[in-house]
Design a protein that fits this description.
Blueprint (H helix, E strand, L loop, with lengths): L1 H9 L5 H14 L6 H13 L6 H19 L6 H8 L1 H14 L5 H15 L3 H11 L7 H7 L2
Helix pairs in contact: 1-2, 1-3, 2-3, 2-4, 4-7, 6-7, 6-8
Amino acid sequence: SSLMETVVGCYDTDDADIRYSAVRLAPHCVVLPITADHTKEMMKELMAKFDDARDLIRIGTANALQTIYCQLLQGLVQEQRVKDVLTDRSLLQEWVKTCLIHMDDTNGELQEAVYHALLEMAKIHKELVCDETSKVRFKHHTFYWCDKLLAL
């Protein structure tokens, strides 16, 4: 409990190195026996890091998200309550929408990292990812990553 509160608290620090470390810790946290509330709070804070001023942290956020869903698919997430949060349709939809916003970022490395995160999320709920992608495709500056997702 206090471990998760400490980790979650690190997302909002002024120190970019600590924020980056907190982002990189997220995949390690989901394999621990944490509560649903801690999982939701951590994911909320993780998703907020897509708006960080530092590109390295934003890319790290996408990479952490990809790793979290890889671990889920590989059966490494043992706690049912954590699995339930990570596969909750309404939460997943919110996270997919956030990812799609950042897949249209001007930073190509971030675009690709977000695409790979969405690819893993699509293995959980392909229809949701494709539906949300089709809604925003024409708003994106380039259709490349959206078209790759829609081709799944």
